[in-house]
Amino acid sequence: MPFITPRRIAQAGFSMSASVADLIDGNGQWKWPIAWYDLYPVLIDLEVPQLTHDMPDRTVWKDLEGKCCWFRSLEVWNVLRFRASLVPWVNGVWFAQCIPRHSFHLWLVIKNKLKTQDRLAEWEVGSATNMNLMCCPLCRNDRDSRDHLFFQCSFSATVWQQMRPMGFLDQVDDTWQSIMDWMLLHASSKKAEHIVSKLVIAATTYFIWLERNNCLFSNDRAKVESVVGRIKRTVRLRLMGFDFKGDAKVDRMLRNWEIAESEQEEDPG
Known about the structure:
It is a single chain. The protein is an all-alpha fold. It folds into three domains: 1-51, no CATH class; 58-83, no CATH class; 90-263, no CATH class. It contains 13 helices and two strands; from the N terminus they run ααββααααααααααα. It has helices at 6-11, 35-39, 73-80, 90-93, 100-110, 117-123, 128-132, 146-152, 154-163, 176-186, 192-218, 224-239, 248-256; strands at residues 60-62, 68-70. Strands 1-2 form a two-stranded antiparallel ribbon. β1 and β2 form a beta hairpin. α8 packs across α9. It is elongated.
């Protein structure tokens, strides 16, 4: 009870390390001074717990609903952390079949938290001369930004055009808003083609960002074939672990990704 000072606790003959059992007498009544009831009226309604000899002391905590539970760091975190409303695209980023590093990166993309050149300019990082010389490392044209990289950049657009059919995303154009519109409609879908779509979106943004950084810091020229190849290999390996329930559309999808039925292992649902 934090409202009772250590000094008063010591004056009553107790110590800060006293257990609950130390505060209960042989008749099952509290041992603290009667004067405490006047000083701390909250003690009046405090019931004496029924203890057994083999019951260890445990620290308790009240959860968000006010219910007592055993103290755990998880419960403390749930009470202390900022809780925002659940976003409608959450299941398009985090789902059972996702590739975690791709999902984390996609979350940064959606939140527009990547350190793109337009954001660096807002922070006034570097000299004005250096900022004016900035251009997209992939297409060498315009300062890069989230919307430019995904997928207005001529390089990224070429990669995206090759991956869209593989991910059943022909109806989605080259704008980030179009991708988010699709995500809001299909984020929670568990259909096989939509799982593939979400994997393709996350993998494409992930490997384009890697290629962008590689070109920026290594002065390499971006290669569409290299990026597309890495996306296809990564998504294909993930799909090989699924046990899709066969129908004509799924069979076509497996053939498109060059996956034989014998290579599947687990149920994506």
